[in-house]
Amino acid sequence: MQYRQRLGIVIVCLGVTMLFSVYSQLSDYFTYKLVKVNSDAPYISAPSSAYVSNLLTSIESIRKDCGQLCNTSRTGLPGPFFDHILANVNCIALFKNKYIDIGHGLPQAPGQIPTELIDEFTMNGRIPLKKYYLNQQYLGQKDKKLVWSEKLIEDWIALAKRGQLNGNYGAIETNALRDGLQHAPNIKGGRVLVIGSEIPWVEACVLEAGAREVVTLEYAEIVSEHPLVKTVLPYDFRMNFLNEKMELFDAVVTFSSVEHSGLGRYGDALNPWGDIIAIARAWCVTRSRGSLTIGVQYNFYDEFLRFNADRWYGKIRYPYLTTNWKQIYRGEGYQRVHVFTK
Ligand SMILES: *[C@@H]1O[C@H](CO)[C@@H](O)[C@H](O)[C@H]1NC(C)=O
């Protein structure tokens, strides 16, 4: 073969490999996102008036206990990556409020936001509202027990070390999280809270980064057989805090989780500030100078709420999501990893 022909073949092969790798990353993403679509989505069925009035009562109670934190009309100060918002947070009230952790109580995830709440969900129209319906009940489902074996987690730690752990979103996103963890104070040797994960890929990355212990907070009941990974359900998490039985955490890590909080998709009740409250509670349980590492879907200039699938964050909502946390590092990924300290 001519040199140029051989070169041509090599270039074509490289191209195919690259395309395949992009394709498998994307298909990972889309399989995960789309496989659970429920085609019988009740887009048009109007919620009952009893449901709406109960919901509005609980929202008013949450608004009261949340105080400044849930007022997204407040302005912040310029920060390194986006505005820095400060608020007085009443941690006891946030953990005590019984409405924050309830389920939506409907046979399927709510298909629409009651008109009375649209302004709160969209920050008075600043966040565009799109439609993308998913129905996945986790909250309070006792039969859905997941088991994380020690071997699985150890295998994933080893894969992460080699940069080859796919996790939930492909190796590129996993490695973006690993990079963030290298910039997050107190992960190494720390006791780390992980918020929301169906499979223990975040936990594997946190252990790989040198954490002493990991505690996972999830709606679903998970049995962890790994000695360094513990799990806690939302109710017990609340009660432990209120009974002062909770040792503070050195760091918090969350990836692709809080953007769903309060949208009803996983069985939780609608709550316009579900995401903000989840991160504020993390603030409450983190010791001073501890860190927060977070990956959520990120479009700096083009954020939106896709009801009920997820929120995309940018310059408008990210500042409220991370109220009080100091911005210290911005990494990579389409769920762009950001690191903060308390
Ligand atoms: C929210 O904050 C804005 C701006 O500081 C203020 O004008 C408004 O009264 C606040 N709303 C509530 C309900 O406290």
UniProtKB/TrEMBL annotation:
<dbReference type="Pfam" id="PF03269">
    <property type="entry name" value="DUF268"/>
</dbReference>
<keyword id="KW-1133">Transmembrane helix</keyword>
<keyword id="KW-0812">Transmembrane</keyword>
<feature type="transmembrane region" description="Helical">
    <location>
        <begin position="7"/>
        <end position="26"/>
    </location>
</feature>
<protein>
    <recommendedName>
        <fullName>DUF268 domain-containing protein</fullName>
    </recommendedName>
</protein>
<dbReference type="InterPro" id="IPR004951">
    <property type="entry name" value="DUF268_CAE_spp"/>
</dbReference>
<keyword id="KW-0472">Membrane</keyword>
